[in-house]
Write the structure tokens for this entry.
Amino acid sequence: MARILVIEPNITLAKIYKTILVRNKHKVWLAKNAQEAINLADKNKPDIVILELQLPQHNGLEFLYEFRSYQEWRNTPVIIQSLVPSNEFKDNFILWHKLGIRDYLYKPKSTLLQLIDCVNRYLPQAIDSNP
């Protein structure tokens, strides 16, 4: 069972993600913004983070910079599930690597099954890096 932090401002979509992930035997916390996500991460020590880049107040990249500034979260896999197209962002491999992004799903073209596949793909790595 993985501990998953979902950072998604769309409450309806966040609840759908939670339902599907809980059905797959994962423990899930939902955050609507970056500050709430940092607080939940501190309290619950997620194994994997699913992140929307378009967040209120601070965007997803700002969240990632702060998240990665904590030693305990430097290796936590992050999966981007966003409305922001990945083409420009994905071309910046240095930024991609620095922020520890493992996968990028573009919401309009991805499915819930693809999200579950991503979580399952990075789950062993997530469990190994977070005791």
